[in-house]
Design brief:
There is one protein chain. By secondary structure, this protein is of the alpha+beta class. It has 2 domains: about 80 residues, no CATH class; about 140 residues, Sandwich (Immunoglobulin-like), CATH 2.60.40. It contains 6 helices and 10 strands, in the order ααααββββββββββαα. The chain has a 5-stranded mixed beta sheet. The chain has a 5-stranded mixed beta sheet with strand order 4-10-9-6-7. Strand 1 and strand 2 form a beta hairpin. The chain starts with a helix and ends in a 23-residue tail after the last helix. This is cytochrome-c oxidase.
Length: about 270
């Protein structure tokens, strides 16, 4: 059994206790540390309880027909199993509150802001700090044949403001190890992250929102601060998102996911 269990995962995966690897933000790293600490604490309690169970099985096993001494009250033991669990819960609550506060912390002046607008069944990403020649925020809007690419800078504080035009959706990038529901107006959800690694990361809607929920994808493209500013300048000039991405040396279209064929009409096999 031990050999079979150890063959199932690498040494690194075994001691992640089921937590996914690949977090690209400090918030993800902090949640990882919280998970590891909580799991080790749970294992410690489990080992103690298992040890006591087996000790009782062996120490107080039946040795004859004589009834052992019956103990009705034991104040010291009752105090121990009342106080110790409370202490464990208090410690876990403290570290959970600290981690949640860190993950939910928002700065007064973030380096970049993106407004996320969800709708059936796609996404629009607006950059309110950059205006086009009409005074409107530059934006990228997805369609049935275009996966929207959300461009963000690395090593900068990014605030996401989320709203929905219809039902509840959920903004989820697996590498962020974080997701947050997107509620219909006037409710606005917001959160901040700092992406540490450049790259392309798939994004999903993580809330069942209707017929084409599974096809409501996007891509998070993390680039350098210089390339990010150049991208916004190109958008302000009226360039499309694919053209602006090409101008900064990035793939013009999403590379982690592709549009799905939404044609539901029957066809004869050729």
């Amino acid at each position: 059994m031990l050999l079979a269990s150890l063959a199932g995962c690498s040494f690194k995966d075994a001691f992640a206790f089921g937590w996914p690897h690949g977090g690209i933000t400090p918030q993800a790293h902090r949640m990882y540390d919280m998970w590891i600490g909580s799991t080790i604490a749970a294992l410690a309690v489990g080992v103690l309880v298992w040890g006591l169970i087996f000790w009782c099985i062996i120490r107080y096993r039946k040795r004859g027909e004589q009834l052992p001494v019956q103990t009705r009250y034991n104040l010291p033991i009752e105090l121990v199993y009342s106080i110790v669990p409370f202490f464990i819960i208090a410690v876990l609550f403290y570290y959970t509150a600290i981690t949640e506060s860190y993950v939910n912390k928002e700065h007064k002046n973030p380096d970049a802001t993106v407004d996320i607008v969800a709708f059936k069944w796609n996404w629009q990403f607006q950059y309110p700090d950059s205006k086009d020649n009409k005074g409107e925020p530059v934006a990228t809007t997805g369609s049935s044949d275009y996966i929207p690419v959300l461009v963000v800078p690395t090593h900068k504080t990014i605030r996401f403001n989320e709203t929905s035009q219809d039902v509840i959706h959920s903004f989820w990038v697996p590498e962020l190890l974080f997701k947050r529901d997107v509620f219909p107006k006037p409710t606005t959800n917001s959160f901040e992250v700092t992406v540490e690694k450049e790259g392309a990361y798939v994004g999903r809607c993580a809330e069942l929102c209707g017929t084409y929920h599974s096809q409501m994808n996007f891509e998070l493209r993390a680039v350098s601060w210089t390339d990010y500013q150049k991208f916004l300048q190109d958008k302000q000039k009226g360039m499309s998102t694919p053209a602006a991405l090409s101008d900064i040396g990035q793939a013009p279209y999403a590379t982690t996911t592709h549009p799905f064929n939404t044609d539901r009409t029957s066809r004869k096999a050729s």
